[in-house]
Amino acid sequence: MTRTTLTGWGGTSPTVSQVEQPRHLDDLRSAIAQAGSRGVITRGLGRSYGDPAQNAGGTVLDLTGWNGILDVDTRARSVRVQAGISLDRLLRAMLPLGLWLPVVPGTRQVTVGGAIAADVHGKNHHVDGSFGHHLLSIELLVPSGDVLTLSPSGDDPELFWATVGGMGLTGIVLEATIQLKRVQTSYFLVDTERTPDLGTLLDRLVTGDAAYDYSVAWFDTSTTGSSLGRSVITRGNSARLDDLDPDLRSRALEFAAPQRGRVPVRPPISMVNRVSAKAFNALWYAKAPRHRTGEVQDITQFFHPLDVVGDWNRLYGPRGFCQYQFVVPDAEVAAFTEAVERIAASGHVSSLNVLKRFGEASPAPLSFPVPGWTLAVDLPVRPGLGALLDHLDALVVEAGGRVYLAKDSRTTPTTLRQMYPRLDEFLAVRHRVDPHGVLRSDLSRRLDL
Amino acid sequence: MINALGNPQHVLLLGGTSDIALAIARRYAGLAPGLRVTLAARPGERRDAAVTELTAAGCVVEAVDFDAVDTAAHRAIVESIEDDIDIAVVAFGLLGDPEQAWTDVDAARELAEVNYVGAVTAGVALGARIRTQGHGVIVALSSVAGERPRRSNFVYGSTKAGMDAFYTGLGEALRELGGHVLVVRPGFVHSKMTTGLEAAPLATTPEGVAEAVVEAVRDGKEQIWVPGTMRVVMSGLRHLPRTVFRRLPI
């Protein structure tokens, strides 16, 4: 047990907690029983950008040691795992069996527990929904000390769905049974195309996404005027064995995900500034092919280009950065366009700008995705950023949209209540299972959850 | 909590009717809508006016009785504040009459008690809160007068020197515990404390100090001079031989 300074992946708002690495269920029970007024929260690999996995003055339970694969049923395509296992490790174990996770977010370095707590989504949301859709059951340790088996069709579906997307505030997920997909290869058949402006981009996504399981667009946040929103659309499907060259077929289920380096130290100032970000945007656009179809790409190329460089968040320097991800309903494309224009005109330049369309929402009251347009931008913290993001919040609220809690690090309780109309449903369940508010995090204090 | 952009949700002003403290609260109110402010000060018209003003600026204000001289009560007052104290501004202090201050025991004791003893008792209480909270920022309003006390107001200067040293040390002690202390060394500030005095060179305003404080808190700085040029000036003055220093018209 040590006092440790923790931040989220964005490197902002450091606070100090007692970090424990519990080994047994009894350790977890006693951590809950002995929690002082500052409470406890769990933490996995710390990939949330903001403050949901830190607990100032309280206890943080590091569950990354709970990483076992307990049971695999290849016929039923299901796996039962401990919540601290990373998606990376799980994918590596499942691929040789021809099995694949139904939802993989923008990094594999998240735990199953974290994926449930944030109800993560991937490039296939428009087809497959979010992580919570594919849970057969979970084991949840609630503050009373009981371990409950929960499922969508079980005795307490409200608690199940409040836990999905509930940011760890309903209990500690111990185990999960996940419905997997069957795949023939670990490769993807990818089509890439460039669009010259935002209008074309939005149009292409509306008309083209149905043909692909996976779809995402990167766009340039640094250009304005007629080339505002020029973009690179990448879409694909899981490759079948027949799609691969003969030499690849023999290792079709190999896990190809190299890491090429790490950022060794946090530089004293941000390496991501207006000049470097503009240059990056221009380069990224220029290097993409105008139009290319049927390219075979591996997991890292297609899914996780950022995982190639470890600790890339350090590039943002000591002040860190905010990732801002929001969604607005399909009909609110005007608000979406205005947000893009506002970002482009603001002088705050983001390099990682991911845009896609979400499909059906999950029954979870705090789940982020709803049908519509979503955009994520990474913005270095510097003066004036607060005003820009507050303005975007207002735009998003007005359009009936919301921001993603796994990314948020600065919105307010009032704004959150406007964004998540089912928040009271979540709070009712939370108060039922945790009446004394033992489960606490910096996020729960900041957003009054 | 202090969010990713450095904006607090709850600010405690100790010496809540100080012009500088109020300017800091106003500035945060502009950045963080719905800011909660606890205004710890002696009850009276000035405090009422401050509550009214901050409420009009969009803050949710609570007034708490606080007397800088009643140092024995400081711990209990700080402990009684329920919300997390994201930022505490230690802004109480007396300037006093400089000639009376070194010739009259009672006047000297009052200056020492308010500016040094009170700052220490409040600081210890705030430090305890930060240890519990695992986060928090203390903004301690020191003065350039404490860097090298001069003949003209050395009693005041000596209290600020002690206060400055205490908060600098407190910052070191709290660093590992999630706390952060910003020691602010303004030069001459046009405020009610200095009404009627002739302004010194490089004079600033409460708003100027507030702007510098908000920026420094966001950047995680541990000490600042306001205006920034004061740092260079003081660095020069600090190293002047005493025989030269005493001849300066300051």
Highest-level CATH class of chain B: Alpha Beta
How would you sum up the major sheet of chain A? Answer: 8 strands, antiparallel
Q: Note the gap between the termini of chain A.
A: 27 Å
Number of domains of chain A: 2
Query: How many structurally independent domains of chain B?
Result: 1
SS summary, helix count of chain A: 14
Order of helices and strands of chain B: EHEHEHEHHEHEHEHH
Number of E-state strands of chain A: 21
Q: Average pLDDT across residues of chain A?
A: 92
- Structural class of the secondary elements of chain B? alpha/beta
**The CATH H-level homologous superfamily of chain B:** NAD(P)-binding Rossmann-like Domain
Q: How much is the radius of gyration of chain A in Å?
A: 21 Å
Shape of chain A: globular
Q: Strand content of the residues of chain A, in percent?
A: 15-25%
Which chain pair has the greatest contact?
A-B, 33 and 25 residues
Question: Main β-sheet of chain B, in a few words?
Answer: 7 strands, parallel
Beta-strand percentage of chain B? 15-25%
Rg of chain B, nearest Å: 17 Å
CATH architecture of chain B: 3-Layer(aba) Sandwich
Organism (chain B): Aeromicrobium yanjiei
Family (chain B): Belongs to the short-chain dehydrogenases/reductases (SDR) family.
Keywords (chain B): Oxidoreductase
Protein name (chain B): Decaprenylphospho-beta-D-erythro-pentofuranosid-2-ulose 2-reductase
